[in-house]
Design goal:
The chain is mostly helical. It folds into two domains: 62 residues, Orthogonal Bundle (Arc Repressor Mutant, subunit A), CATH 1.10.10.10; 66 residues. The protein is 69% helix and 9% strand. A three-stranded antiparallel beta sheet has the order 1-3-2. Strand 2 and strand 3 form a beta hairpin. Helix 1 crosses helix 3, helix 2 packs across helix 3 and helix 5 packs antiparallel against helix 6. The longest helix has 43 residues. The termini are far apart.
Length: 147
């Protein structure tokens, strides 16, 4: 990720609301609106931020997604599947018994391993997140919390 995109992302992530207008970003980062425009275009393309209209206004603001890291990492599944499909074709093309075929096959096995591990990580994270949210909710509604 380029430096300006990183700065914009960090600024959004650190904001209380998780959303800022282009003008707010430019002011906070002390950069031009053009720099913000390029950064949010990239961040939108990689689905790390989304554009939304400010209520009652024509101005747009940019919001960091609630589960941005989860989405950023798990959305790579499609890419992994494309890579593995290409590698399978490569093994077939050069032959599994050739040196090139063995190298390609090892790459394929590694990516299959990564995909499987990602599935396990995804499941464990969703379970852990649900448990943490339930704990927080219990703390809020328990003794001393709002009721």
């Amino acid at each position: 990720m380029q430096r300006m995109s990183s700065r914009v992302f960090a600024c959004l992530l650190a904001s209380d609301e998780g959303a800022l207008s282009s003008a707010q970003l430019a002011e906070r980062l002390r950069v031009s609106p053009a720099a913000i425009s390029g950064a949010v275009r990239y961040l939108s393309q990689v689905r790390m931020v989304s554009r939304e209209r400010e209520p009652g206004s024509r101005r747009e603001r940019y919001r960091v997604h609630h589960d941005v890291w989860f989405e950023a990492i798990t959305s790579r599944d499609t890419l992994l599947h494309r890579w593995t499909a290409t590698l399978r074709t490569g093994v077939d093309a050069v032959g599994a018994d050739s040196a090139a075929g063995r190298r390609i096959e090892e790459s394929l096995e590694f990516l299959d391993f990564v995909a499987e591990e990602m599935n396990g990580l995804r499941e464990r994270w969703l379970k852990q997140r649900a448990e943490r949210e339930a704990e927080r909710e219990a703390e809020r509604s328990g003794p001393g919390g709002p009721g």
